[in-house]
Description:
The protein has two domains: 33-61 and 71-79 and 159-266, P-loop containing nucleotide triphosphate hydrolases (Rossmann fold, 3-Layer(aba) Sandwich); 89-155, no CATH class. Helix content is 37%, strand content 23%. It is built from eight helices and ten strands. The strands form two sheets. The protein has a six-stranded mixed β-sheet, sandwiched between helices. Strands 2-1-4-5 form a four-stranded antiparallel β-sheet, with helices on one face. The protein is globular and about 50 Å long. Adenosine-5'-diphosphate binds at residues 13, 15, 22, 24, 42, 44-50, 214.
Amino acid sequence: MAKLEARGVEVEYMNARTGKRLTALQDVNVDIEQGEFISIVGTSGCGKTTLLNAIDGLLPIKRGRIRLDGKDIKGPGRDRAVVFQSPSLLPWRTVEDNIMYGLELQGRRRDLKAQETVKSLIRLVGLSGFERSYPSELSGGMQQRVNLARALAIDPELLLLDEPFAALDAQTREFMQAELLRIWESTHKTAIFITHQIDEAAYLADRVIVMSSRPGTVRKAITIDLPRPRSLHIKRDPKFLSYVDEIWALIEEEGRKSGSLAAAVAS
Ligand SMILES: Nc1ncnc2c1ncn2[C@@H]1O[C@H](COP(=O)(O)OP(=O)(O)O)[C@@H](O)[C@H]1O
Ligand SMILES: [Mg+2]
């Protein structure tokens, strides 16, 4: 049995102002295995965030089903944690209290094990010494480390990441990609990572899912057969570059169909 199973998933939005319906996802079929790292790429507006939100249980599904560990997803749950593009930290809380947040909601603030978890996550994401800092005192990259630690704190079955590095400068972004892999190697959480940066998708993933443009569906799933652990040097490997070319060609084609290539390239 796959860890996550999506079958014939259709999601529709209703524009409250015009009353028009928009099919954002149509017949999405995906199987994700335990411990797998999946990247999802596609042109802007193809439905990546919609798919992630459906998996997170935030959006109703019109047709089809999504199952996690064999159980239908019916709403948000503790078994899933999300990291968004913009750090969603609580500004009045310190780093350690932000990471503690999810555990606190489970009534575990005073629990010694929860406190140990927070400490070891701070070490894992490389924020030792910043336990008592506030989000405003941290760089964008450091804030995303806190977000990642906060997501991992509740020990989710599934880690969902929606363009978590999109707001970072290019150099920090590369560094954070390598950091994410280092952290992932030590937890091996099943992860779904959304990005529209192709080399980021290929560098991180076991498989890259390329989505077609609206209505979004799976265009192709490409297995990235490169050894782990991966260092950033692998981005110069001819095999890596040929994966990037293959993905790029598919996205270019989808972009041409939807007329959104300019937007995809610009963003
Ligand atoms: N809340 C919403 N109401 C209506 N339409 C939406 C809403 N959210 C997204 N959409 C539309 O659904 C499509 C997919 O959006 P989204 O999943 O955000 O794409 P992506 O993350 O791939 O850029 C887009 O055409 C977008 O305009
Ligand atoms: Mg999005």
